[in-house]
Structures are given as C-alpha cells and as structure tokens.
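So, can you check these tokens?
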Amino acid sequence: MNILYISISGNTKAFIKRLEEYGKEQHELDSANPLISAKEISENSIFEVEESPFFTFVPTYLEGGNGVDSGDTEILTEVMREYLEYEDNYKKCLGVVGSGNKNFNYQYCLTAKQYSEAFSFPFLADYELRGTSADCERVYQILKKKAVN
C-alpha cells in the first residue's frame, strides 16, 4: 500500500512510522497482508506523476474563520494539494486520512474533508494528533480493505 503524506509538526510522520511497523508485523504474520510504502511530500519535493494507487494522509492547519460559515484558509499543507493536482495525481488516490486536534471541534480533520470533496475521493479515517496503537490497527485495516476493492 502506497501512502503520500505531509507532516508539519512531526505528528503525521510519527503516525506513519508506527503504521509502517504495524504493517510489517502483519505481513510477517501473513504474507497476504500488504506492506506500506510511504513518501513524505514537502516544500522540497520534486513533483512526479504517481503511477500506482495511493492513500493521502494530511493534518489540519487552518487560518481564519471557523470552517462553517466564515470560511478558512488552508496553510502549511498546500504543497500536498499542489502535488495531488500535478498531472492529475489525485486520480490515483484511493482516499484520504485526516488528523488534527479534537479541541478544534468542526475544524478537526477539516483539511482532509475538504480534499475529499475537492478531489472526489473518500474520507476514510481520522486520528488525533499522533494517534494510538488502536488507531494504527484501525487505519491499517481500513486501508487494506479499500486497497483490495
């Protein structure tokens, strides 16, 4: 399973590392379980055409508004949006997983929800901040199920 992700504060990167380890453990138990191949997208990334299906992981960083009636502005994660737009990479995306801080109520995972709407791929799962072991297991199973369908 291929994953593209962006990590600003390190939370998403930490979650992806744990998710990769969990996937490796599952693969060792049963080789039918897929391994995870993750690629971080950053301001320094060279844009490429994605050849294989992938999942996108994006945290939420917004400025201004409340995301409901007074709008909001995506900040810090725009490079992922640009990467998905590049040569229609978004067409290979099987879905998006969002993260954030539940203290922000409606804005929790709002960037991932906006990507889902803008690019017409499903919002698959969420986790808070760095996630838990249970989140890794849950997200892995969701991705695995979506990858085989």
Q: What stands out?
A: The mean pLDDT is 90.
